[in-house]
Amino acid sequence: MAMLRASHLPKAIGIIHCRSHQTDSSVISRGNNRADRAARAAALRGPDLPHPPQGVHTLQPTSSQPPPNMRQILSYLHQLFHPNSKALSLFVKAHLKPTSEDLNFLKTITASCKTCQMSNPNSKYRNSPFPTHQARGSLPGTDWQLDFTHMPTVRRVKYLLVLVDTFSGWVEAFPTTNKKAQTVSNILLREIIPRFGIPASLQSDNGPEFTSQISQTLSKALNIPWHFHIPYHPQSSGKVERTNRSLKTVLVKMSQELHLDWVKLLPLALFRLRALPKQPLFISPFELMYGRPALTPGLSPKPSPLPDRLLTPLLHHLRSLLWEFADHSLPRPCATPCTSPINIGDQVLLSPPDQSPSPLSPKWKGPFKVILVTPTAAKLEGLPHWIHLSHLKPFTSPPETHPSYTVSTTGPCSLRFQRTLKSSTLPPISEE
Questions:
Q1: Can you give the residue ranges of the Integrase catalytic domain (predicted)?
Q2: What CA–CA distance (Å, rounded) separates 359 from 252?
Q3: Residue 301 pLDDT > 70, yes or no?
Q4: 226: which of 191, 219, 339, 428 fits an S-S bond (Cβ 3.0–4.6 Å)?
Q5: Is 429 among the domain residues?
Q6: Pairwise CA distance, residues 53 & 46, whole Å
């Protein structure tokens, strides 16, 4: 039979490249179109399943009993794919009949796999809960955190050296054209030390501008301990990193309103950060630094606070109560069906997940109209792809305005109609 089938095979086969989906009547086009139709028919045809006597169509016979070499199969599957134990257990449950002992064995081999332990980003080790994990000065100007942040280039200036007093939260920022150790030393000698005195300590990351010989020679000459944070752990520089974010947010808002570059707006932005109160004391860095609030014309002076000897025990007691009840205030899982926080027709803003905007450019685009929603994503009008809800936030439309008219007499036989805009949603302003 093999010789008979071989005798009907073609003696030679030629493979050529031809254009697909052609409408001419050439031999090549007709043959290619015939091959396309045959391939389409084969793809649309379902698989030929066996018909057991019970009438159940299965791809392969199944057994209600687990195979005897189940643990060998589990080890082989884990070595083949290296998935987590939950995903592999779901896969095994769908095709085999593992017992509870087999599932425990699966967790064991997953937890002991060297490849998985060296590759998975998660870890069971967690830092112990401390009231604070950052060093803090005991008086204003005694301890500073330093950091360079990148900014849009304005007249060769493209860096910003930010310093934060860890006791009061007072912020100092200096635009620079480079991020060298000589620049850091000059700012410390000409700006920080003459105004605030020699600090008791300095904190920074392990950048070369801070670890270089110039910076360290200055710190040793002035007897200033310079503490370096753990590499690749920005939480250690949390105060200055959070200040960088707040400062850039203020500059973005001010640049949109005043249409000036960030170098000119920097003094006003610094004053805003210094004058506003902060938690947990609800006292501004300005007041902690100078002993009084920032002067604001038109506002009544703030009454003198209670002495620190009366407030300090209360603050310690309140902080201990907060830590005690923090674990009990966590939200519990909700048993209600999952619903989307947005509805069809809502206006939302989009943070593009595939773009990295400039540090001072707006982070959101839009608004866009929602045309389809799921519990985790939304389809926006004018965009071809679905957007995850984590990249969206609601957009509040401005109040609608409707024209109204006022009538006044300008003569014995003439009237004057003057058009005004009246908001339909804002309440009327009453004059006392």
A1: 136-293
A2: 9
A3: no
A4: 219
A5: no
A6: 21
